[in-house]
Amino acid sequence: MRKIFIVGLSILCSQLSFSQINNKQEDSLNLRKLYDMSLLNGKSYQWLEHLSNDIGGRLSGSLDAQMAVEYTKKELETLGLDKVWLQPVMVPKWIRGAKEFAYIETAPGSTRNINITALGGSVSTPLGGAKAQVIEVQGIEDLARYGEEQIKGKIVFYNRPMRADLINTFEAYGGCVDQRYSGAAEAAKYGAIGVLVRSMNLRLDDFPHTGTMSYGELRPSQRIPAAAISTNDAEYLSSLLKIEKKAEVYFKLNSEQLPDVQSYNVIGEITGSQFPDEYIVVGGHLDSWDVGDGSHDDGAGVVQSMEVLRLLKESGIKPKRSIRVVLFMNEENGLRGGNKYAEVAVEKNENHIFALESDSGGFTPRGFSFEAKQDQFDQIAAWESLFKPYLIHYFELGHGGADIGPLKNGEIVLAGLVPDSQRYFDHHHSENDTFEHINKRELELGAATMASLIYLVDKYGISTNSGVSKL
Tens digit of pLDDT for each residue in 6-56? Predict the structure, then answer.
């Protein structure tokens, strides 16, 4: 009897091993198919060209944002998905107004123009503009060192740069973005009349980089105008202040905050053949800032996410689980789209098991970052060898993404595509974020990489606290 049991066990182990080999071979072939389709017959670049060149910057609440909603919905409908719909969401409507203007004055009639752009959400300057002496600080924590006596009535110039010695450029960004987000609110407490913030950019150039900012709890009457200054002009102003401490800056902003307006998340779905009540999401944000055309941030993520569903559909792969593409509205200045999607998911008691976001530019993909429990990450990391032929080596625990963040519930796995980020902040939130800076092949590689991960998650499921993963 013991001999029969051992022989039986040996046969079972052999069958399991053979099954694993067959699965790996099948997975390898399907990944190859997805990459081939994206590189040889992809649509992401074509979609992005229209989104960027024919529509342009897509600031929440704008006509261009609505045009983008209508365009992407129409394109998703051509893919033969099971469902395509719009999810209403109220979004803020902030407008920049006439182009900003600024100069440095060292003596009456002796001026030099500088490149600035209003930060998103900033109030306007007084009708005639704002003019004052400048005090340079190296960050919010530096304000207390000078105090109200030295700051009151002046323009605070935040000049802490992104750290060039950090290989992870998002870490460098995170190290100084607080001066952009909260700099005006904090400077106003010391009596400043306005702020200039060094652009979040590792390169020296003439492009000021906008981005969202907040006044916190300040009353409207206490709010002061805030603008980004290009890195070249920040360097010049800093050098000048060392020899001309009484130099003045004049700047004029024409921005305005209007009442919220209705916009939409754009959603498309392939309904799962076996487990339709398990949802996998892939997405990017449809809105962008208005100073460029938003090709890298986040037009690339939008079209890559659309391409994931197209590749799965046209490859003949029939997903077991329901796979949704979600094009989120209002990531840049409110996260209303991400919050609304998660809110509706909870209301409907939808079981989301995995969400993948692309919001780091359309550059060469390197891998993925995951917000997951260790056992879930170990399951996913076992697929890493399948991606090695495509030079995808980065599978790490970390951040998923802003728009999918509200879905976090202790069970769902959140993931972010990780492209090479060294050039991302050359373009981020600036006039330099335009379609001409998109590399077609890099964009298509990113789409195929995302589709490959979605394929594997759909096929094998994700482990949960109960230890059950539907297969």
Answer: 545 454 444 545 456 788 899 999 999 999 999 999 999 999 999 999 999
For 348, counting Cβ atoms within 10 Å of its Cβ (0-12 exposed, 13-18 middle, 19+ buried), the class is: exposed
Q: How many CB atoms lie within 10 A of CB 385?
A: 10
Catalytic residue, candidates 186, 331, 357, 431: 331
Are 146 and 135 in contact by the 8 Å Cβ rule? The answer is yes
Spatial contact of 219 and 211, defined as CB atoms under 8 Å apart:
no
pTM value is 0.93
Q: Cα dihedral angle (330, 334, 340, 343), rounded to 10 degrees?
A: 150
Distance separating alpha carbons of residues 428 and 120, to the nearest angstrom: 14
* Of 10, 68, 52, 45, the residue nearest 328 (C-alpha): 68
Q: Is 314 a catalytic residue?
A: no
Question: Three-state DSSP class for 365?
Answer: strand
CB 288 within 8 A of CB 330: no
- DSSP element (H, E) containing 207: none
Distance CA 299, CA 451 (A): 17
Phi, psi dihedrals of residue 267, rounded to the nearest 5°? -130, 135
> What's the pLDDT tens digit per position in 404-443?
999 999 999 999 999 999 999 999 999 999 999 999 999 9
Q: How far apart are CA 306 and CA 333, in angstroms?
A: 23
